[in-house]
Amino acid sequence: MSINSDRNTKPPKSEDKEDDVADQSVDENFKERRVLRYGYLSIQNLIRDKKDEISAVSSKRFLSIINEVDGMHHLVNNPREQVSDAEALRDLANTLMTSIRVHSTGNVTPSVFVSSLITQYGKKRQIGSTENVEIRWKDIGLQVSPVFMIGNGSSTMLGPMKLESKPPKPSVSRKRRRSVKLEKVKPEELEDITSKEKTETEKTIATMFDILKINKKVRLENLVLNRISFAQTVENLFALSFLVKDGRVMIMVDDNGSHYVSPRNAPAACKITSREVVYSHFIFRFDFNDWKLMSNLVAEGAELMPHRTKVNPCGGSQSDSNSNANSNQTTRTVTKTLSKRFEEASWVACN
Question: What are phi and psi of 125, to 5 degrees?
Answer without folding.
Answer: -140, 125
